[in-house]
């Protein structure tokens, strides 16, 4: 696999959204530099997840981009995605690694350095760390950890840290400066008037720092 992408687009499958149109627009701007994480609502059926993930995997393959699947690792395997992402309510990281195999990309959510070290020891290849700022995309999250929280985790591990939660092109530089390898977004692209332009602005913001 080419070097790991620094901009992760997490699909927005809330009612009224068009995740495939957003993915197409983002790929038109970022191409192989993009990682798309297919994330469906908790109540979505496996069939719905499979159908969306299959279509996103095909779009990513055509663009040379990486496709990951959130939570549902059997769906990741079924569509031939590059890997998956798990958090506290999903399979434990070591079990996820056994399911996906040794070569897959495996992301794990970590909110502290200690949790990050444990996830890496269990087989995570990158960490999703947040929420960095308030977000309206997901309920029930702990208080935002800001750049200092990113620095705490990034300083504790030697895998890429992907900052998530309320991230925008305006805030991405301070997160990268704090140690994030990249960022993951939902609303900054999905809610943008021009998702392709928003993607380009995020990429530029990430790479402006280092
Ligand atoms: C890059 C990235 N970081 C964190 C998460 C959150 O995963 P999780 O804690 O399992 O919560 P859900 O997304 O499953 O609701 C993520 N998806 N991606
Ligand atoms: C899915 C998710 N996980 C988070 C975490 O902190 O674990 S924040 C989040 C939502 C990110 O959406 P937006 O970019 O619109 O804020
Ligand atoms: Mg999860």
Description:
The structure is a single chain. With 210 residues, the chain is an alpha/beta fold. The chain has one domain: Aldolase class I (TIM Barrel, Alpha-Beta Barrel). The protein is built from 9 helices and 8 strands. It has helices at 19-30, 46-63, 73-79, 93-100, 113-122, 146-154, 172-177, 187-190, 195-207, and strands at 7-10, 34-38, 66-70, 83-86, 105-109, 126-129, 161-164, 182-185. Strands 1-2-3-4-5-6-7-8 form an 8-stranded parallel barrel, surrounded by 7 helices. Strand 1 (7-10), helix 1 (19-30) and strand 2 form a beta-alpha-beta unit. Helix 1 crosses helix 9 (195-207) and helix 2 packs across helix 3. The longest helix has 18 residues, at 46-63.
Strand order of the largest sheet: 1-2-3-4-5-6-7-8
Count of the domains:
1
CATH architecture assignment name: Alpha-Beta Barrel
Strand content: 15-25%
- Summed up, the helix count is 9
Please outline the major beta sheet.
8 strands, parallel, barrel
CATH uppermost class: Alpha Beta
The tally of strands reads 8
**Termini gap:** 22 Å
Helix/strand/pairing category: alpha/beta
**Which molecules are bound besides the chains?**
the ligand Cc1ncc(COP(=O)(O)OP(=O)(O)O)c(N)n1, the ligand Cc1nc(C(=O)O)sc1CCOP(=O)(O)O, magnesium ion
Function: Condenses 4-methyl-5-(beta-hydroxyethyl)thiazole monophosphate (THZ-P) and 2-methyl-4-amino-5-hydroxymethyl pyrimidine pyrophosphate (HMP-PP) to form thiamine monophosphate (TMP).
Domain Thiamine phosphate synthase/TenI: 7-189
EC number: 2.5.1.3
Binding site for 2-[(2R,5Z)-2-carboxy-4-methylthiazol-5(2H)-ylidene]ethyl phosphate: 135-137, 166
């Amino acid at each position: 696999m080419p070097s790991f992408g620094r901009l992760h687009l997490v699909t927005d499958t809330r009612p009224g959204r068009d995740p495939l149109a957003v993915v197409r627009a983002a790929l038109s701007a970022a191409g192989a530099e993009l990682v798309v994480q297919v994330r469906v609502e908790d109540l979505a059926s496996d069939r719905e997840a499979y159908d969306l993930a299959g279509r996103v995997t095909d779009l990513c393959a055509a663009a040379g981009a990486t496709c990951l699947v959130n939570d549902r690792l059997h769906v990741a395997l079924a569509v031939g995605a590059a890997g998956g992402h798990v958090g506290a309510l999903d399979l434990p990281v070591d079990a996820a690694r056994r399911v996906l195999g040794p070569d897959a990309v495996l992301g794990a959510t970590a909110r502290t350095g200690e949790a990050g070290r444990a996830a890496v020891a269990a087989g995570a290849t990158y960490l999703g760390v947040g929420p960095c700022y308030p977000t309206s995309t997901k309920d029930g999250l702990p208080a935002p950890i800001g750049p200092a929280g990113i620095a705490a985790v990034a300083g504790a591990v030697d895998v890429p840290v992907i900052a998530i939660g309320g991230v925008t092109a305006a805030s991405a530089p301070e997160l990268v400066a704090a140690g994030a390898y990249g960022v993951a977004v939902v609303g900054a692209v999905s809610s943008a008037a021009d998702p392709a332009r928003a993607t380009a602005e995020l990429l530029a913001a990430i790479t402006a720092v280092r």
